[in-house]
């Protein structure tokens, strides 16, 4: 049935599954939120989203490597002769890993790196969780939930390398199809757990489902791919992790750290300086905004590996034109969706007064939306540069995000949610975006001159 819908809409299968996952989020999100509002108290909601924020620090331990791996794998496959006859013969090609020692080395080192990073992620998440939630009432059973949640997320994080390699090697449809399955089954797991009174354990149920899909993809569905990666015909290659990956990765790592500090502590700041109720208000609103942002970025992420392939094949102009079109569509969708959300939050209190204490106010959301749009534009610029395996705009990004992080901490600690959201938007719009855009335009000009 899904394939018939995709053929009717005449869209790429990868984009279809990416959009299907976002549509599912749009459908399932209100159901999940209604169940949270029904089965969790305002304080429990704050703990629920605080736990999610704690395991969300995997963004820091990724250090931007996932996108680097997609880009590097796209470059590796661009050297393989094309044997495909499908709708996109430039990228959908039959690929023999045995003849590509560059991809073998990339896979071998990256999987080891992510296993080590997952261990560090688990240890750090436990410490951060204990420090953040130590004043929370023990009746919420947050300690056992925290341990189980961190362990499952650490296992899931360890599979990030395999998924990035698969996506970069041309198996985009497989990756996005499995992510769609994860989204559907994860939501159902949360619904069942909440409905049966498991409360915070619903987070653990969703994490367990994600791990099961990751294990199945790596060791069963795509097992042959990785077997060939481990047994190439020739392991002689001019690829060097230190030369080809590290110069890009360390810059991505610095940027990821700065971005992490600017965006991933919002709920925990409110939890520390305000209350569980306020953290719940922000958390439940951010969950909706996050789904909207991911939907808007679907057009960008599903074409990132294609852009890397086009640049690797010397089709930079074609990649640039396509990317600009994607950026316009993606940004317009985000702006429209955020404006619609402001209207919805304005109407909800008219339907039931209880909604006033479960979400942030519409005008607070309107302020925060400005910063979300600025962050979206920065992400589009950064991904386009990375698709060329070029060095990221480390200095501009780091200064902008670190400034945002400082502003957020000052605003949140002194003026609560309103100060935090206002500080985020002002710093993102007035400092981070101008700095990044200036460096981005200089990069594009230099690229044109080199190619001219």
What's this entry about, in short?
With 452 residues, the chain is mainly alpha-helical. It has helices at 2-9, 13-39, 42-55, 58-62, 65-77, 101-133, 142-158, 160-168, 172-195, 201-221, 223-230, 241-263, 266-273, 276-296, 298-301, 304-312, 316-351, 362-386, 394-451. Helix 3 (42-55) packs antiparallel against helix 6 (101-133).
Number of beta strands = 0
Radius of gyration over alpha carbons?
A: 22 Å
Q: Mean pLDDT, nearest integer?
A: 82
Helix content: over 70%
Main beta sheet strand tally, sense and closure = none
Q: What is the beta-strand fraction?
A: under 5%
The rounded distance between the terminal residues' Cα atoms is 48 Å
Whole-number count of domains: 1
Low-confidence stretches: 5-10, 82-98
Order of helices and strands, N to C?
HHHHHHHHHHHHHHHHHHH
Number of helices: 19
Which word captures the global form? globular
Structural class: mainly alpha
General description of the model:
- This protein is mainly α.
- Helices cover 80% and strands 0% of the residues.
- Helix 13 (266-273) runs antiparallel to helix 19 (394-451) and helix 14 (276-296) runs antiparallel to helix 17 (316-351).
